[in-house]
Amino acid sequence: MKLANPDIQVEMCDISAFALESSKRTLKANGVEGKVFASDVYSHTSDDYRFIVSNPPFHSGLDTSYSATETLLEKAPSKLVKSGELVIVANSFLKYPPIIEKAFGNNTVLDKTTKFAIYHASK
Fold first, then answer.
1. What domain range is 88 assigned to?
2. For the whole model, what pTM was predicted?
3. What are the φ/ψ torsions at residue 65 (nearest 5 degrees)?
């Protein structure tokens, strides 16, 4: 996104130290500047994003857990500016569409295979 839109500011957050390090390396490998910081979903984020792009977690150990994702999706509208957009990539079997629809009142499947789906919603 940053390479296609050089004027945007990129923020990447996660609760996992491994994910944060991976984010830093991804930015560096692509020659992109961005802010990488620890945050439990929205605990240390702003509330004026134009886009929220995520591949949200669904594991808690070996179990499938929707709690962090439910928080991410339910609170996303309050973290987006007017006409802000959410884009999520996820395993196709996960039940994200109803959660997105409830939070935004809309949900579009941008692409879907037997393994993955890309969902979009706008404020």
1. 40-122
2. 0.88
3. -135, 130
